[in-house]
Amino acid sequence: MTPGTFEILKQDPRGGARLGRLWTAHGPVDTPVFMPVGTQATVKAMTPAELEALDFQIVLGNTYHLNIRPGVDVIEQMGGLHSFMGWGRAILTDSGGYQVFSLAKLNRITDEGVTFQSHVDGATHVLGPESAMALQRRLGSDIAMVFDECTPYPCDRKYACQAVDRTLAWAALCARQPRAAGQLVFGIVQGSVYADLRERCARGLMELAFDGYAIGGVSVGEPHALILQGIEESVRHLPADRPRYLMGVGSHPHMVEAVARGVDMFDCVMPTRLARHGTAFTRAGKYPVKAALYSRDPRPLEEGCPCYACRHFSRAYVRHLMNVNEILGIRLLTMHNLYRYGAFVQEMREAIAAGDYGTYARRFVVEYGNGRAGEPANGRDE
Amino acid sequence: MTPGTFEILKQDPRGGARLGRLWTAHGPVDTPVFMPVGTQATVKAMTPAELEALDFQIVLGNTYHLNIRPGVDVIEQMGGLHSFMGWGRAILTDSGGYQVFSLAKLNRITDEGVTFQSHVDGATHVLGPESAMALQRRLGSDIAMVFDECTPYPCDRKYACQAVDRTLAWAALCARQPRAAGQLVFGIVQGSVYADLRERCARGLMELAFDGYAIGGVSVGEPHALILQGIEESVRHLPADRPRYLMGVGSHPHMVEAVARGVDMFDCVMPTRLARHGTAFTRAGKYPVKAALYSRDPRPLEEGCPCYACRHFSRAYVRHLMNVNEILGIRLLTMHNLYRYGAFVQEMREAIAAGDYGTYARRFVVEYGNGRAGEPANGRDE
Question: pTM of the prediction?
Answer without folding.
Answer: 0.97
